[in-house]
Design a protein that fits this description.
This protein is an alpha/beta fold and 391 residues long. Helix content is 34%, strand content 19%. The chain has one domain: Alpha/Beta hydrolase fold, catalytic domain (Rossmann fold). The strands form two sheets. The chain has a nine-stranded mixed sheet, sandwiched between helices. The structure holds zinc ion. Zinc ion (ZN) binds next to loops.
Length: 391
């Protein structure tokens, strides 16, 4: 075999996959101005007038995401082979360190928070973390993540916090992998498979919530997976901003030769399932009360279910998943998953997270010196690209 032939064979999987990515169709970052984003919504709204015509459009948008990802919606769900260990008993909840294989040899790493209370079955909440850095913790083990997951667990939910690729323990690829959007979407879809594989979880009561890039993961998963019953994307849904990272907008999921959409409509694919938009006055969600929320509410109104979509706007706040945003989500999830908000309220009826023990980062790791990554774990961006070429 000539060396050039060998080289071609070595790089064939990458070549085949990259050929399917139409970069001219990418909508990234501030692809629209605020005015263009608003005008686009007005244009989109003229393409439907009732549930049937909206669902025709919704299916085109949903199919556009699968096509943009280059992923077959019936991709093979290989064995998860879950690892769950190091249970820590805390005040009203427990925390375990977990991993499962979303693809053969490709691990999702995370923590599972469970209520201590015995219930016949439990709702579950998936909790992606977003691009929030911290000098001591990883994005997944940050204090605000621990507080969110512990509070929801004490309220009665089983909660899964899971790493984005290239973050925390998910060290098998870089975060800037050109196919990060596919890898993370597969991870989210497989996180649903994992959580409903737990016999104590009620598969009809699965929610997802995350902020920023975790908000993007939230509305994409909700759009693609009907098993998500309740959705709460935080500080992300915008008519003019498409997400600034390769893991949010690195593939053409918003546009094709015959359609154009934005994250507002992708979030609206939740309809008529309960949806909460949390927004603030300092980022691309600042117009939510006047632009994005009314647009999505009109779609819910087609179903006669406008009350199932809410917007909690915090005009004096910034881009984070701080306490006031968490409070809004706690109340929304309590309402729609029948969780007990009183479990995290003090005697004055205020939400009080002081029962939570913030664990050191090291105690939350599933892979350690004693328990290293399994030997069959793939390593490196090229290996992940090769793995995806089978899907
Ligand atoms: Zn990213």
């Amino acid at each position: 075999m000539k060396p050039t032939t060998l080289l071609l064979l070595l790089f064939l999987p990458t070549y085949v996959f990259s050929q399917s990515v139409d970069t001219a169709m990418l909508c990234q970052g501030h692809h629209f101005t605020e005015a263009e984003g608003k005008t686009a919504l007005e244009r989109f709204a003229r393409s439907y007038h009732d549930v049937a015509s909206w669902e025709t459009r919704a299916e085109r948008i949903r199919q556009g995401i699968w096509e943009g990802l280059g992923l077959n919606r019936n991709f093979e769900r290989t064995p998860l082979s879950p690892i769950i260990r190091n249970k820590k008993e805390l005040d009203g909840y427990t925390v375990e360190n977990i991993a499962f294989e979303s693809l053969p040899g490709f691990f999702v790493t995370g923590n599972l928070y469970r209520p201590t209370r015995q219930l016949p079955s439990y709702p579950a909440v998936l909790s992606p973390h977003g691009h929030f850095q911290d000098s001591v913790y990883s994005a997944r083990t940050r204090e605000d993540m621990q507080k969110r997951c512990a509070s929801l667990a004490r309220m009665g939910a089983i909660v899964l916090a899971y790493d984005m690729i290239g973050y925390g323990e998910a060290s098998q690829t870089s975060h800037r992998h050109p196919l990060a959007l596919v890898l993370q979407t597969i991870n989210s879809l497989r996180a649903v498979d994992f959580i409903i594989s737990l016999p104590e979880v009620d598969p009809e009561q699965i929610a997802v919530t995350g902020a920023s890039g975790g908000g993007t993961q939230t509305f994409l998963l909700t759009a693609l997976d009907e098993r998500i019953a309740v959705s709460a994307p935080v500080v992300m849904v915008s008519a003019h901003f498409f997400g600034g990272c390769v893991c949010e907008s690195g593939l053409p999921i918003h546009r094709s030769q015959d359609h154009q959409t934005s994250n507002v409509e992708i979030a609206a694919l939740a309809a008529p399932r309960p949806l909460l938009l949390v927004s603030d006055g300092d980022d691309w969600t600042k117009n939510n009360p006047k632009v994005e929320y009314p647009y999505i509410r009109n779609i819910y109104q087609l179903y006669g279910k406008a009350k199932l979509v809410e917007n909690h706007h915090l005009p004096n706040e910034q881009h984070d998943y701080g306490i006031n945003k968490r409070k809004a989500v706690y109340h929304f999830l309590a309402k729609h998953l029948s969780l007990s908000i009183s479990e995290i309220q003090n005697t004055q009826g205020e939400i009080d997270e002081n029962f939570i023990t913030i664990l050191p980062h090291e105690q939350l790791l599933v892979f350690t010196e004693k328990y290293p990554q399994p030997a069959h774990a793939i390593q490196g961006d090229q290996a992940a690209t090769n793995l995806l070429s089978n899907y």
